[in-house]
Amino acid sequence: MKKRFLSVLTVAVMAAATILTGCSGTQTAATTAAPAATESKSDAATTEAAKAESKTEAKAGDKKEIVVGFSQVGAESDWRTANTESMKSTFTEKNGYKLIFDDAQQKQENQLKAVRNFIQQDVDYIVIAPVTETGWDTVLQEAKDAGIPVIIVDRMINVSDDSLYTAWVGSNFLQEGYDAVGWLDEYLKKTDRADKDINIVTIQGTIGSSAQIGRTNGVEEKMKDHAKWKMLERQTGEFTQAKGQEVMESFLKTYNNIDVVIAENDNMAFGAIDAIKAAGKTCGPKGDITVISFDAVAAAFDSMIAGDMNVSVECNPLHGPRVSEIIGKLEKGETVEKIAYVKEGVYPADTAAAEKPKRQY
Ligand code: AHR
């Protein structure tokens, strides 16, 4: 973007600079395209960028593709597959983009390498779906020094300086945790168990990821209002079906009084359901164990329709168009929202059959 922005506006900016010498502008570096370019490059580097740009554009007014480097977490879940698909189908040649896609296989070290590669390739934008929240300061400073805007998608990052990224779009994971507890509260009332002891286990996502932190904390916070609810144990299932199954098998061996399993994504819930059945127990609205999940992917609706899962709290993966909209605004030098939450719903089993045909993922 920094070069694109320069190429489109070099003449205008130079003219304006002549008139307004010393004027610093009013938009913040974190939210607009222009300061990201001007702040991070010295005058000499800026001239270099403008020269490099003029090499790649045949004549003024020609449209050049926007090069986006996207570092994806991995392919651990149905949600992730839908997210990758959303990004790949948005950042196409037809839409004016060249996408450089990197699958980090759930390892932050791979993401750091990918981002450094993107910087070397001098992409226009870096988009990161971060595995975990911490550990980003150094590499994002490198991106900033190179004048490349960074957009964070899905999970959040925890950095000492917010200007290291331009914008974030994703889910309110804490709210998702609250919603799960809100649903359970209502469900227990409806099934005449409001005053009963309720034993819960949680299969957590990747420890240190926003999705895990928000959902775990949201549930923990709201559980304080329910003196009769007890969290027996929490263990990570790394957001995968296989690990979810393994963790549930071990919970079932340790506890014979589990009333509720909270799986921090649908795939781990599918694994948990397999483990419950293999242990000779039942689950779902008519079963022994209530299954609460997150994501609301298509297969979760099938599971609810089959009577296995009780509820899935939505986590929307369709971020491609959202990121593209942010880039579109930055290209025009417009201000973008620094933080944008996606609106999400709660889908209990009794709504699954009616809702499934309306789902996009
Ligand atoms: O960050 C979103 C979470 O990551 C989804 O809940 C999960 O399925 C994915 O792996």
TrEMBL record:
Main location: other
Family to which the UniProt record says this protein belongs: Belongs to the bacterial solute-binding protein 2 family.
Keywords: Signal
InterPro entries given in the database record: Peripla_BP_I, SBP_2_dom
Skewed-composition ranges (Low complexity): 38-49
Gene3D superfamilies reported for this sequence: 3.40.50.2300
One of the record's GO cellular component terms: cell envelope
Region (Disordered): 38-57
Highest taxon of the lineage: Bacteria
Molecular function via GO: carbohydrate binding
Pfam families named among the record's database cross-references: Peripla_BP_4
CDD domains the record matches: PBP1_galactofuranose_YtfQ-like (cd06309)
Protein name stated in the entry: LacI family transcriptional regulator
Signal peptide span: 1-29
PROSITE patterns with a match to the protein in the record: PROKAR_LIPOPROTEIN
Claim: Translocase is one of the keywords in the record: no
PANTHER family found in the cross-reference section: D-ALLOSE-BINDING PERIPLASMIC PROTEIN-RELATED, GALACTOFURANOSE-BINDING PROTEIN YTFQ
Location in or out of the cell: Cell envelope
